[in-house]
Amino acid sequence: AITRIKARQVFDSRGIPTVEVDLFTNKGMFRAAAPSGASSGIYGAFELRDGDKGKYLGKGVSKAIKNINEKISEALIGMDPTLQSQIDQAMIDLDKTENKGELGANAILAVSIAACKAGAAEKEVPLYKHIADLAGKTGVVLPVPAITVISGGKHAGNNLAVQEIMILPIGANSFEEAMQMGSETYHHLKVVITEKYGSIGCNVGEDGGFAPDISSVTEGLDLVKEAIERAGYNERIKLALDVSATDFCIGKKYDLDFKSPNRSGQNFKTGEDMIEMYNQLCADYPIISIEEPFDKDDWEHTKLFCSLGLCQVVGDALLMSNPKRIERAVHEGTCNALLLKVNHIGTVTEAIEAVKLAKDAGWGVVVSHRSGETEDSFIADLAVGLATGQIKAGAACRGERLAKYNQLLRIGEELGDDAVYAGDNWRSP
Ligand code: PGA
Ligand code: ZN
């Protein structure tokens, strides 16, 4: 049974306060921390921050901590940690709001994850196995890593509007080999960028991708293409973009110069222009997935683009991992993959349900980190246990990113001959 819950404020990878929880049972102490993103979005679970501008510029989380130490812990002490849905429901009931705004989604999620880890220990099974059990699944699968290699958007200080260019080693034979391919390509890219932009071009963005001074996505894709060629992985590595277009949608137009100090408005694109651009990109490069190609409320163009069937179309802010929005998108055929951010929805149980909804619709599922991460590696086990087939955890560099990939390496080692790597079946392993 859960005997004690203790929360504290720690820092995330951007140096911003976040919630960490130690949850105790007879089996020991189980720790978890909440991540945080650059795009918060109005349709997601509510991240509770103190708002006291005199402290941490308003970003402290002492209220969330207090809610755990006083209210949540009182409600959960004595509960069986294997009963994840009951634990999560108890917190949802205690919170009483639609968006977890009373206790804070950051408070609820950290406890939910810590409880999940305690549940696995209680059953004496690996975390991914416990998660598979909770989801009613039998097979576990190591995901294809979507490794960020170039950063832009809100994650970097260059003028590139597109937030991420990622490489997907779908042609690898194992997760370990996928990481080898990703790591080698990353280091080749460092050389390619240095040759063209000097070593200053190798400064990295918040998720560890290089952030050279480029302003067009084709410039970035050409660099990555060159690096893949030099690494010798031409056919075996495919590409993906996270456009995060919500961040530069002004009215109904898209401003590809949104970070330029002397923006002229010349580079404003309509939804149709954007579709034309993606069309061309998919023809010129081996792009197999595009995330958030339009604004979160631009269901019309997202659907139009998706209907062309050029690549996987992933909903991030469009869906907010929210069952109601996922159901609408399934019904209308708006996109064909879910970006699962556990803190968008707020509990492990609801994350599992969101994945089920997406999988039942035949969608792809990408388990995702946030730009503000911690050393917590929970999402690695989550991706394996739910057999999502895809995980996006940033570059093959920076501790908080590697925490996830390294955990996947450990899981692969533990599974040994039983390890299944999603590979070519990345969309439906
Ligand atoms: P965020 O970015 O965590 O800053 O929202 C991640 C993403 O957009 O996928
Ligand atoms: Zn995104």
Please write out the topology.
Layout: E1 2-11, E2 17-25, E3 28-33, H1 62-76, H2 84-95, H3 105-123, H4 127-134, E4 144-151, E5 164-168, H5 175-197, H6 217-231, E6 238-242, E7 249-250, E8 253-255, E9 268-269, H7 271-284, E10 287-291, H8 299-307, E11 312-315, H9 323-332, E12 337-340, H10 342-345, H11 348-360, E13 364-368, H12 378-385, E14 389-394, H13 399-415
Parallel strand pairs: 4-14, 6-10, 10-11, 11-12, 12-13, 13-14
Antiparallel strand pairs: 1-2, 2-3, 4-5, 5-6, 7-8, 8-9
This protein binds 2-phosphoglycolic acid (PGA) and zinc ion (ZN).
What does this structure look like?
This protein is an alpha/beta fold and 429 residues long. Helix content is 39%, strand content 17%. The protein is built from 13 helices and 14 strands. The chain has helices at residues 62-76, 84-95, 105-123, 127-134, 175-197, 217-231, 271-284, 299-307, 323-332, 342-345, 348-360, 378-385, 399-415, and strands at residues 2-11, 17-25, 28-33, 144-151, 164-168, 238-242, 249-250, 253-255, 268-269, 287-291, 312-315, 337-340, 364-368, 389-394. It has an eight-stranded mixed β-barrel with strand order 4-5-6-10-11-12-13-14, surrounded by seven helices. Helix 1 crosses helix 3 (105-123), helix 2 packs antiparallel against helix 3 (105-123) and helix 5 (175-197) packs across helix 6. The longest helix is centred in the middle third of the chain and has 23 residues, at 175-197. It is globular. The mean pLDDT is 96. Zinc ion binds at residues 242, 244, 291-292, 316, 339.
